[in-house]
Write a structure and sequence with these properties.
Number of helices: 5
Distance between the termini: 17 Å
CATH superfamily: Ribonuclease H-like superfamily/Ribonuclease H
Order of helices and strands: EEEHEHEHHH
Shape: globular
CATH class: Alpha Beta
Strand order of the largest sheet: 3-2-1-4-5
Strand content: 15-25%
CATH topology: Nucleotidyltransferase, domain 5
Structural class: alpha/beta
Length: 163
């Protein structure tokens, strides 16, 4: 099973591809899509979609895990990131990739067994679970890999309970 994990954003979209072999996730590729500061949001979401299409063409994931948005303060940021997330979901749908969503707390709980783990704890778990030489940078890439790992664990659990 090949899974793409995505951490949506407008300036940086983190992505990570994992293969699940014998119930264990293994990193295949990871990186980020960046859009220039000051670019109109319509151009940004188009660029995100076009770059994601290239990644999907190259790696051909079967399933995806996209981080759910959580904003408590800045409505303007929430709106623009929601627009980027919409472009991501549309692109995944066009490629026939199944989409699952996970909140940041669900991802933290899945990887660390603690829903309030800090960023460094999460990054170290991604590094250790995937046997990476270093913590992926920027942070958005580590977050995307964490979402993909979370999905691989959720699939395994669902399989164990017959869902």
């Amino acid at each position: 099973m090949r899974i793409i994990g995505i951490d949506p954003g407008t300036a940086i979209v983190g992505w990570g591809i994992v293969d699940v072999e014998d119930g264990r996730p293994k990193a295949v590729a990871y990186g980020h899509i960046t859009t220039p500061a000051g670019m109109y949001i319509g151009e940004r979401v188009l660029l995100i979609a076009e770059e994601l299409e290239k990644i999907l063409d190259e790696h051909v994931p079967e399933e995806s895990a996209v981080e759910e948005l959580f904003f408590s303060n800045n409505a303007k940021t929430a709106m623009t990131v929601s627009q980027a997330r919409g472009a991501i979901l549309l692109t995944l749908g066009r490629f026939g990739v199944t989409v699952s969503g996970y909140t940041p707390n669900q991802v933290k709980q899945s990887l660390t067994s603690y829903g309030r783990a800090d960023k460094h704890q999460m990054q170290m778990m991604v590094k250790n679970i995937l046997h990476l030489p270093d913590i992926p940078k920027p942070d958005d890439v580590a977050d995307a890999l964490a979402v993909a790992v979370c999905h691989s664990f959720s699939r395994k659990t669902a399989g164990l309970i017959g869902k």
